[in-house]
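Troubleshooting: if your tokenizer reports a length mismatch, compare your output against this known-good record of 248 residues.
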Amino acid sequence: MANANKQLNAGMLIRPKNPPKIFLGLINVPVNLNEIHKPNRSQKMVNLFQGKTANILLFQIMANNPDIITFLKSIDKDKAVIILSLLKEETIKKNTVLLSEGKICTKNYIIKNGVARKYFIHRDKEITTEIYLEGDIAFSFESFTYQKKANENIVAVTALECFVIDYKDYLNAKTKYAWFVEYDLMFIEQYTTQLEHKIKELATLNAAERYKKILNHYPKLLQQVPLKIIASYLNISVERLSRIRAKV
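Known-good structure output:
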């Protein structure tokens, strides 16, 4: 659920250097992640929504897509309150396994603070496919969507503060509210677009270029994540990553 301005991770695409904000509910006032969990959240959010119209897509920080913006301007505050009711706040310890291979993904983790990663094991080697940062949603799209066993793992690299959406609540909202399905379709469109960007990046950038993007856009990541995970994400050895770092 992301875009060129701030990708919800499909490979750490370019994001702005300003602290991200997630737009929970459909309002024309950005809601900082740090504000959502405060006491009396629901009433405060209802007050915030009062008199506002929608212009931000569910759980996304997205590009200025005129078609989507036009659609979202029709959404009222009551729908935003329903969307907010899906969120549950959780604090997760470092190294906690959020999803294991062979298990079904039943939760989406919207990361408020911290870092997580997705990986699979190939020939006894861990291959990191995604690194989730603040504002990203950590989950297995296929497993969550079809409620089938995952072929990947997701783990908290650092301690995490998250907003969690349970599949049962998500499915109930889709079943109960016809308008919610439209959000689901737009999410799929955004997610597919994001994957296309990742495929292009993998096909056109070498490991050194991808490392420079990490260095330029996510400098703090290098302080939070072990180099072996960065190397795994770049699909190179730690030794080669060290040589690349020495030349930068």
